[in-house]
Structures
1.
Amino acid sequence: MSLLDHLIARIDIDGPLSLADYMAECLLNPKYGYYTTRSPIGAAGDFTTAPEISQMFGELLGLCLAQAWMDQGSPAPFTLAELGPGRGTLMADFLRATRAVPGFHKAMDLHLVEASPALRKAQAEALQGHSPEWHDSIEALPQQPLFVVANEFFDALPVRQFLRDGSGWREKRVGFSDGALSFGLGPIAQQTALAHRVEDTRDGDLIEICEAAAPITTALAERITAHGGAALIIDYGDWRSLGDTLQALRYHAPSDPLDAPGMADLTTHVDFEALCGAAQTAGCAFSRLTPQGVFLERLGITDRARALAAPLQGAALENLITAHRRLTHPEEMGNLFKVLGLFPATATPPPGLQS
Ligand code: SAH
């Protein structure tokens, strides 16, 4: 049995799947899912992320949140959490950089929200000397001040796609015909969740909704509002979703999302407006959506790169210069990736962000 066999059997019984159900099966099926069965990040995997490009990324996020913690009076104890920590690289760099911040590690309880057993193992290895507690869901995070980072986590959550048809919407679905998985469209229906999009869309436009994102943001925002803290959410996407952003990556190259289910990474762009709406309802303030390059420059990435470059030459120096460029340049990750900060309405935004 393979994931494809399982999907065919499920479609046979239930009919075509929503894209969200398809993505959830591909990414997180307990037996065949992409994240559940492998460690896909890095040169040998399918995609590379900012913390894998350079230690500077995790270091600067660490110092940013440590400063936010001090700005809020250094609460103790507090939760330091990461959502979807991948190979644990970001958190290892974060913790090394914050070692010298007085009282920070002593007051910290480290919590990781991670669905993948394979990646939990990699995280345990990367974070030797620390004792993280792992959780399947955000709700399990303790009720105390919460400082949390999520890099490329929200883009991995399943989305539904809807095509505008007159004043209604047709949901995109995954079916099985002529021996292969294929996309189709459901019947025209009204969608209350899309009522606010009737005005700014036209016939034929496609909208994505990530139903899992709001409850996750709400759980973070409720803790930050009630107890203090801050969230740094970094991902590709924009204020409002428009168009089909589903992307499959295999061996660092784009592939067909219906080809080889469970063996490619599937992502979509994040609709940050939906996250901000959920945060606001929970009484939490949010920052302006800030391009990653601008955010890292404000935090001093160029000074950090100069310091790291001082003893280097040859290929090592070239690598560092390339990494700095990849993280910050508008034509690389600098503009595509955005940073959103959540913080209590009574506090200042984390460094590098503005309200
Ligand atoms: N933040 C890391 C990894 C990004 S990949 C980095 O920047 O390198 C996405 C991560 O989120 C992986 O660790 C994956 O296993 C995890 N993940 C995806 N969906 C999840 C879910 N629903 N619940 C918990 N973790 C999830």
2.
Amino acid sequence: MCAASRSLHPPWWQSAVFYQIYPWSFQDSDNDGIGDLRGIRSRLKYLRGAQHSLGVDAIWLSPIYPSPMHDFGYDVSDYVNIDARFGTLKDFEDLLEEAHRLGLRVIMDLVLNHTSDQHEWFRDSRASRLSTKRNWYCWADGKSCGRRPSNWNARFGGPSWTWDPEARQYYLHSFLKEQPDLNWEEPSVRAAMWDVVRFWLDRGVDGFRLDAINWLGKDTRWPNNPFRLGLRGYTRQHHLYDRDQALAHDSMRELRQVISAYPDAVLIGEAAADTPGGPASFYGKGDDELQLVFDFRLMKSPWCAKSFRLFLSQHVPSIPQGGWPTIVMSNHDQPRHIDRYGTGGDAEARARVAALLLLTMPGTPFLYYGEEVGMRNGKLRYRDLRDPYTKRFWPFRPGRDPARTPMQWDASVHAGFTTHRPWLPLPPDSSQRNVETEAADPRSLWSLYRRLLALRRMSPALSRGDYHVIEEGPCDCVLYEREARTKTGTVERMLVAVNFSQRPCEFALPSGSSQGLVLASTTADAATSTWDPARIRLGPDEGQLVRLD
Ligand code: BGC
């Protein structure tokens, strides 16, 4: 697959498993109902400790910077500090030190396209046309008859232009009106952001998850976007001019240069799925833009063998030479995959298979907090909602709050997350579905995640090996092999077989196929059994991991 897989000293992030923490919801230490940094620190051993830990390698923290929280931290009002709800810079440094002591890397979220309207850069910019920061944001005069500078619409609904009576011009915001877009054409904006990057890297963070990068450049002549017939909302326009400009790639190349002074740092990009060339275009030539780019196809695809086979046989190989795939099934913007992959049949069985796929497919996996215990999407009433995007489209779109409910640690009244009323309600099933209960049960989803993480950690084939899809087998099943040379020079081969149907299946691989040992099954206990390619049996919604002879 990727050339990097064959390099002698692969970078840490290729074999790492990342765990996304939504700081609002992970652990509250001061009992105000909101998670915080001391809370996260108190749970680090759960993620990577000597005993009984899940066993991940890196955490990605969704934004923890000071923010008015209109977009729950994606509206930053100061890039070099910590929001008081979450703690202080000292709390962050303590967290970082403890994480590193445990061997856990820490990734910050970095919001580049926009700031909060409360950021001093924006206050300064809007104060006067003569401000030195005026050009740091996208300001424009209206057209005649009080019309906006262009027809552009915002990702979160409504127009992207808002009239500012103080500045006496319109400003651009691609998301909420409280999130004015920076003008990335302005060299001092880029310089200021690179200073932010250095600020955190100098403190020891291990890299950044870069937010909404394909929005960075705009056509500053502000031409109207053409309409798409028959569609509504954000998709009713072809977003030709308000995003996806060459400047986004230029900026990522510049950023790659900046971080070259920190050889271990990683950049992970988030771009819209429909950006031209796809998000993978942000790998650039493979070594000049980002090291990792999220691939959200598995977040959009149905639960069926066909789409997973397509992912493996066409999409992963299309990543440019030198790039490295990512495997993502859930995050803070989408409904959790346990519910998204279908509510009929046995959702838990599918979640178990999803865990096997996430941790054995080629690429760097990203777990979303709570998926290891099978946290479901919260069933929230309108009055529980906090996210403006979720509120705006409620009840027609699932929204984002349901996937952001507090972590379910134990069976106590607030699930061990807080003793106060949590900022979003916990689901009623938290008394059964929680870390404490599942960690005590060797057959739980949590125990399966932990076992797979341990197997992956010890297996060069699973963590960074080459792969190929095995085309033989029933159409409801997906089979693939991973392979790598071990330190002692032997070749390790692993096989993954998944039955996506709700019927048992039995089949044979061509004669000459290797025998092996089943190391894990998503339906059985940890007990191992032999793998006979002449008589493969997979139960309904079952996946198996096999070490081939
Ligand atoms: C983040 C969202 C955020 C948006 C605007 C994203 O893609 O993941 O949570 O609302 O960017 O910053």
3.
Amino acid sequence: MTAPSWRATVLTLFPEMFPGPLGHSLAGRALETGRWALEAVNIRDFAQDRHRTVDDTPFGGGAGMVLRPDVVDAAIGAVADAHGASPRPLVCLTPRGRPFSQADARRFATEGSGLILLCGRYEGIDQRVIEARGAEEISIGDYVLSGGELAAMVLLDAVVRLLPGVMGAAESATEESFSTNLLEYPHYTRPAEWQGRRVPDVLLSGHHAAIAAWRQAEAERITRERRPDLWAAHRSPHCVAQAAP
Ligand code: 9D3
């Protein structure tokens, strides 16, 4: 079998966390069938001393420890592709990063031969190596995690399902046609009555136009109630807004 054309390398102090949940469901199946490859590399293997030190105290004082630039740079250098190969973007998972979006997922799935993901632990990574290596800093949201590993898994899950041949063709087509900046309408299946709760009558009517109208109205109501930001984007056609998931 030929080598996967899309490869992810994760630089981490906890390589044993991978593939973790990425070994299951859609991404896991795609790994098994060679649609992508995943490699977890231990940053500690690039420490320069016999104690295998990777971090140090922050200049200027303050709590916690910072990953050393020399160690992180050596790790990046060891996994960066040989000259001539198409270079992979370097993404640094950090709470200070730009928020990850579906547009980023599409870009990473379509624009390169994979990704190098750098996971922080401790208080952070020395800013000089982030700049020197041109890393793109990305966060997955405004809450505090204990490290970048789970964030890297979230990002990879979102990207891998968009790789060619990972999702079924029918599923991808549905996704394309419903990227309208609205949250989804609610779903129901049998039984038609459960614990005294009935499925909305229109869904049992067989009246396809009425069903489509009900779903559209519900999608709009739920978006307005839960996500005023998406609702505003939906209502501004001049704005090239991010599609809702
Ligand atoms: C007290 C200052 N903290 C910043 C908010 C320090 C800090 C907290 C958590 C430094 C690193 C971390 C570990 N988190 C990540 O590495 C991380 C993360 C996150 O915490 N939230 C959302 N996205 C991400 S991506 C990487």
